[in-house]
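Hi R.,

Here are the chain sequences for the assembly we discussed:
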Amino acid sequence: MATLEFKNISHSYEYSFGKVKDKEKAEWVINNLNVVWEDGTANALLGPSGGGKTTMLNIISGLLRPSEGQVLIDGKDATDFSPQERKIAQVFQFPVAYDTMNVYNNLAFPLRNSGYAKNKIDSKVRKISELLNLDEYLYESAGSLNEGEKQKVSLGRGIIRDDIVAMLLDEPLTLIDPKLKNGLRRVLMRIQRELKLTMIYVTHDQHEALTFADYVSILNAGTIVQSGTATELYDNPKQPFVGFFIGSPGMNFIDCSLSQGILDCKGFTLDIKTFLEKKGVKEEGEVKLGIRPESVLISKEQTKASTPFNIQVVENFGHYRIITVEGMKKRIKAKISSSMNVSVGERVFLSFPQDKIILFKQDSRIL
Amino acid sequence: MGIELKNVTKYFGRKRALEDVSFEIKDGEFVCFLGPSDAGKSVLLRVMAGLEKVNSGSVLFDGQDVTKLSVRDRNVAMVYQDFINYPNMNVYENIASPLRVAKKYSKKEIDKKVHEVAELLNIDKILRQKPEEISGGQRQRTAIARAMVKGAKYIFLDEPLANLDYKLREEFRTQLKETFSNREGAFVYATADPIDAMALSSHTGYLYEGKLLQYGDIEEVYNNPSFSMVGKYFSNPTMNLLEGSLNRNDKTIEITKELKIDVSGYIDRLSSENYILGIRPKDIGFKDGPNKVKICGELMLSEIVGSETELHIDYNGQNMIVLEPEIVHYQYGNTIELYLDENRFFIFDANDKSLVAKTGGDKNGNA
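And here is the predicted structure of the full complex:
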């Protein structure tokens, strides 16, 4: 059980390999990251591919030495520790198990290698296999199991030694059949809670990250753009990217200019003067308005504050609909109740409640 | 005008892939065939396209029997999961290839058609790029463009979104629906994902072990699933199915002592002893109100999906899913009170799984 920490970590493959000598000219995959993963917490690293997730993971596990900065384990500098010395378990997309060995021997393998006593091995194997719901398969060969069970065996092998302090999971469910995912997910969550391991889960799937982790860090283009709980990321995105990436469909954005409390959205205006005053926002100029599809209000009748748009697409989701509307060269999505009847080509009126509007200036949140 | 199948049966060796399938698709409809893997969806598409022969029954296009016609003579196109045909050709050449093969279009005509369809699918800016240089969503759109460029009347899509991540699926669904609304003919789409079916289609059919259990207007199938399998599948998340038995004395179906459903209005029609009661996750909540039945269960798992939360609850050993229309966090292992809307139950016969009645409709249990 340990707290893991990144202190000013940057990495450039070119620079580390000596291909580019000049720091300024090298391409940096991750830039000056400072992160703390507290002891015993469930964390996720979420982001699109190419954002630097795997590089980060390899730096944590010790497979890669960062070009700059320090990795701390419980406050101690572990930057030069080997993966073995770090005592961090890793689970990959592909299950790693010996197909010809039975589950018992697969789990016992790391313990035998570390010279554990026979009775100690037996009690550990039984304890872990019970936690993983693998006890009924103990004497079956790993090769005969389905991918979900096999992935549990990989996980078990990783965490079975007493000295393991953390586990890293690199998209462990990506290749698992959807029907088996739920069982595996529950097992992962139970392991984390019972063993109180610090867990870092890497994925591009927001559904998995938000379900699995208490704290999610969103990684894009080598930097962590925001960290927080699922609710914080959804309610208070600090950058447009987070608003788009979290939530389905993502947030709508409109380029506007703000002057004296009037938001000019190029086609219609919104008076948000009192609201800005209340919030103490003084910025002006070019801004980006963000609003979630579930916050856009749709009406069939025009009111003073509403703007006409034409319905382009109607998608039915059973208990709600997502409509895509166009007007004034803008395309906006709105979530409406399935009891409201709408059709393509119809004209509707949109309004944006002030308290649901988010404003960004040069990609940072001002309201 | 449209596609009609009459009593189509198809065997592969001794394995029956389709059994006595009949339906009619009219031009202008977007049809999704839904069902678990191996239900016969792909075979059905291939039969319509002329890529598979049938053992008995007939296929009609615009009233003409085309059962014996090959794919070349049917004016159809097919889009698969693995979308790009020629990985070393650029987007333009991939789209143009069916026209070049046909050998009846001039260079100028080809150029015009490629640009038209590329513009429609919003890939006109990447025509000179290679498949490896574009995103998964753009590759999929290239495949659709390729299918549409010859002006085929019927386009068959076999799980085209299965390989895309959720953000791309979201974007692609909207685009596909918009593209479709501007053209003649019909789109026929096979998917295992009920969200695709609901969002995209005007009509849907549910296949189960080669049989078409239900076919009809999308709202009709959603509101009146004729079998419990259809109800369960055609719901996102899946419909909860609870076992209950009829109590003739107090005219209820009893699931547990605390959960009884009044069936006094149509008890005469209930001839069996055992029933399956279906209720959608959206019709269970945490707030009391009129017509609500209270039960208690234990929270096992909560999943954040898009902008909603799915809670998995253990109720008397049965798994029950509850849908909350926002992102919420609950403590696992806690006992929580649930309120079920008693007007939202589907009553299926436990033996043949057929829909017998619905609560909350008229007195007779009809919709």
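The domain at 233-358 of chain B is CATH 2.40.50.140 (OB fold (Dihydrolipoamide Acetyltransferase, E2P)). Chain B has two domains: 2-230, 233-358.

Let me know if anything looks off.

Best,
T.
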